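Researcher: I'd like a structural prediction for the single chain below. Treat it as a standalone chain; there are no partners to consider.
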Amino acid sequence: MTVFVVSLFLPNTINFTLPNSTSRHRRPNPPTRRTTKIDTSEKPSLFTQRDITPPHTPTEHDHDEFFAQKDNPDLRGHFPKQEGPRSTIAPSDPHSPAWGSGKLFTQPRSRASSPPPADILKHNKTVEKAAALGRAGVRQPQIGGRSDSHDRVFAHADWTVVPADQGNGGLRNAVQAAVRNGKLNDKIWVGTLGMPTDVLEDTQQKQDIEDRLATEYDSLTVFCKDSDFDGHYTHYCKQILWPVFHYQIPDNPKSKAYEDHSWIYYVKVNQAFADKIVKNWKRGDVIWIHDYHLLLVPSMIRKKLPDAKIGFFLHVAFPSSEVFRCLAVRKELLEGMLGANLIGFQIHEYARHFLQTCSRLLCVEATNDGVQLEDRFVDVINLAIGIDPVALDMNRADPDVAQWLNTMQDRYRGKKLIVARDKLDYVRGVRQKLLAYELFLNKYPEWRDHVVMIQVATSTTEQAELDATVSDIVTRVNSSWANLAYQPLVYLKQDISYAQYLALLTVADALMIASQREGMNLTCHEYLFCQDGKFEGHNKFGSLILSEFTGSASVFGGNELSVNPWDYRQCAEAIKTALEMDDGEKKMRWGKLYEAVMHHTAEHWFTAFLTRLDKVHEEQSRRDTTSVPRLSINALGASYRKSERRLFILDYEGTLASWGSPHDIILTSPQRTLDVLNDVLSDDRNTVYVMSGRQPEELDRLFKRVPNLGLIAENGCFLKEYGSSTWTEMADPEAMHAWQESVEGIMQYYHERTPGSWVERRHCSLIFHYKSCEDQESAARQAGDCASHINDACEEQRVKAIPTENSVIVAPIDWSKGTAAMRIFEGLEKNMAPSSTNASPVDFLTVIGDDRDDEVIFRWANALEKQKVVQHVTTVSLGSRNTEAGYTLTQGVTGVLTVLQKLAQLS
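Model: Treating it as a single chain, here is the predicted structure.
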């Protein structure tokens, strides 16, 4: 069995050695980008600035030079130490450079055309200007100074395979940990090289790279056009999906331009991945797809490989349905994810958001365990990723780490250190964090000269405004409270080497994470691990200040100092608490946090997901109608002859009568159905129950000519035992009336907004019908909203809204066809005592149904056979959907009546 680990970027990339060039920095420098200085006369601040003369900025040491990689001009120290030549250990949260613009390696530049203009209102003006320049004979400069000769040199240049500086570090570490511990023997990475590749098209160089990665690095390389990848990654993923998934709804004209421009490229890249996987897949292989870059790949593969075992894990947050529905292609993205057998999220909140979104936008039934589609069930779980402690501990033993520890301890001796490392974007909350720190220093002057915050901020594309704002805050803080020997805020707009990073986490007194939304922040996991006191004389058991909006906050169980990054006062107080916390409390909190980190490790996450995927794929395959055998009448007849106490539980609509839904008005049953039931009941050894969603009075009218027939009405809320003339109401009438009053108000709200709909009230259920609506798309959307609203608002009342074809049914959770069947069986046990030949009240049980709500009774009946309570159990499903029934019958109502008729003739 091979596991395909599918991620946008491979763990390795290519570094070229160009003629007469040994360094990436020999390239022509791109033209300097001029940025407009933003007016900061009204500087963001939480308090009134007093007129002061700024003290001199410290000049004894320059922090940028202090953290510069003097001893590693080629930046090899940027990466963790590897266990072997093929290992893939990476920083858990690598801060990737913009695609095609990395400075670490010598690689081609992108041939992708320029993105759409920043403002769609200027689009026509841009086109007109370009045309006018062309008419005037003005040749516009090529961005980046790239030339054809520069491109051609890559086709023949020497190259080496090196660890990539971008991609999912947590995933790579998890795979490496699983390989190290023997949990993963055969794997294949699937991804791109993370660099422009158009210059390698139609060259032997491209084939050689692909072959070597496949044979030596277990990697299948997906090659995309530069324009496709740029549109997919730089535009659609980063400008549309990333903000929306982190609750930053794109609301400016630029985003609309990017969405229209780049969706087709998102589809193209996803299709390229799917085609690569399909081409190399063998039966029994596992396909595990990762993150928001590849949301469409599961369904694309499912169309070509219906039996494939496909898992999908979303590493970032998943927003609420109100946010996700802002996407123009929301249904396509959801349906793409639902191609998987198992979908994983970091925490329960994200999984619940996904289920609610599917229910609301796709109008499908979403349970706590997953999504019920028409032909199959998709399991949904939450499973937090973690770090690889073994690899982290190995890297801490690097002499460079010890050297940096001593250097930093000397530099900041006598100071409390608050550290942070974030991407400089609106999601990571750097601005909010620095404002809170400014408030802390202003509010608690006794801490000035005694605390230093070190903020490492790696810049991202197109964040000039945020960059300027943050820089102004840094300048204001330092100008207010710095002196010749002290700088309160060290702001590094650069990434640091891995050794420096580990040293920083080790010497810190506190780590502060102020993300406005984040899937799982592994930096805080690594910080807690580094605070174990392994290095004598250095800090240990440091405090963690963590935003409540990160996935990690759900894992740590409140032992961190949880903050709302928008509440600056709370953040400032948390800083004070962290710095003043006594050693006993620090050790107690750290101990519990460390325990959580060591439980939720990368290896545990990897193996737990694959184990669950194996289990759900086996269950789903077993339920698939192609795996469920056809009913053998001869075998059923043989069991029927051997038995003495027989119980039949039969669905009505679609099973005994092809009348359609329970909501159609039926005055009489077909004569053949009545005749067959009477024939079966003519044998005293047979007990027959008919179950339906109809009300009791309707069933009495339908079956008044079939004496001794047991009836189940409203899907288990009413029971009429065989031979009885009275109905037993299983549910409490007052409780039913209470929830119906509240739910009916919600239904009426949506009824008023859905022309052509109507609300039907039954004894124990409510039904929102929209079959007659002219605008079915709008009606289905309103129905999905209605179901989601009811499930959210009325959970404590023990009711559930289930979207069905052209309706939404709201019924009690505690009463179903399954509970009615259990009540019937208990009654038979009381009335039919065990005999010398029969230890059980029933030795032959047949359940036949065609609807989704019959699955619960199939499950119950199969359990009786597995527990050997009933000797002969036959569960039969009609139709082509996936089922837990043991057999299928494809002839519909006619087939059911034929089977019952033949059994009656055997009596």
